[in-house]
Amino acid sequence: MGSRIGGLMFQPVKIAPSILSADFMNLENDIRMIEEGGAAYVHVDVMDGHFVPNLTIGVPHVKQLKRITKLPLDVHLMIANPLEQLPWFLQAGADILTVHAETLEGQWLDRAIQLIHDAGALACVALKPNTPVDVLSTVIDKLDMVLVMSVEPGFSGQSYIEGSEQKVAQVAAMAREVGNEALLIEVDGGIGEKTVERVCAAGADVIVCGNAVFAADDPKQAIHDITVIGNASH
């Protein structure tokens, strides 16, 4: 069961290890490891070298991931033209599809959410660190999840931006105001045992972990420990 804080129901903490930090030469083994360790999702960072200064994986990789894991694929599109490409990722098997608020405005953000829902996937909108939560005001009632970036998107291994938990709390308050109590709040960037407590206390339910899992001496134990700390802070 989740816990109720300020009128909003927060779900048990779910860990979404980011394969950006995995060993791509042994990716299937790493996926098996996080499955056994209790991960809830596989977080897939898609970067186009335009919206963010890095280039990662694309549709063929998502198709392959869909074949090797039963975990839901949490696909984060850090790309400049999501409306053109999101149908490809939905067809490839994305279970949760995240677009960035900075790339879509007004009716186009609504359109993206509708396309995701029409495909049977969960719709998520991501916010960069300097993007105010107000940009979600017209769509938060339609969303399944909001992703709060606690680092500038583009590279793994960055340090948590202090104060990011305040944005988590703002998103939670906005969801409460519109009655979207089922909304999940995901946080991505610099999250590990030392930082998970503050974001979960503010209302985060889904925690993206990169190095905190894949660079740990015991990744399975790391997933367990981060989950326990996060749940204890709800």
Distance, first to last CA: 11 Å
Structural Rg = 16 Å
Q: Report the CATH architecture.
A: Alpha-Beta Barrel
The helix/strand order is: EEEHEHEHEHEEHEHEHH
CATH H level, superfamily name: Aldolase class I
The multimeric state of the shown protein is single chain
**Order of strands across the main sheet:** 3-10-9-8-7-6-5-4
Write down how many β-strands occur, each being a DSSP E stretch of 2 or more residues: 10
CATH topology: TIM Barrel
Structural class: alpha/beta
Model regions low in confidence, pLDDT < 50 over at least 5 residues: 3-8
CATH top level label: Alpha Beta
Overall description:
With 234 residues, this protein is α/β, with parallel strands linked by helices. It has one domain: Aldolase class I (TIM Barrel, Alpha-Beta Barrel). 36% of the residues lie in helices and 20% in strands. The N terminus is likely disordered.
List the topology elements.
Layout (H helix, E strand, L loop, with lengths): L2 E3 L2 E3 L3 E4 L9 H11 L4 E6 L11 H10 L4 E6 L3 H11 L3 E5 L6 H12 L3 E6 L17 E5 L14 H15 L5 E5 L7 H7 L3 E4 L1 H4 L4 H14 L2
Parallel strand pairs: 3-10, 4-5, 5-6, 6-7, 7-8, 8-9, 9-10
Antiparallel strand pairs: 1-2
Helix pairs in contact: 1-8, 3-4, 5-6, 6-8
Quick rundown:
With 234 residues, this protein is of the alpha/beta class. 36% of the residues lie in helices and 20% in strands.
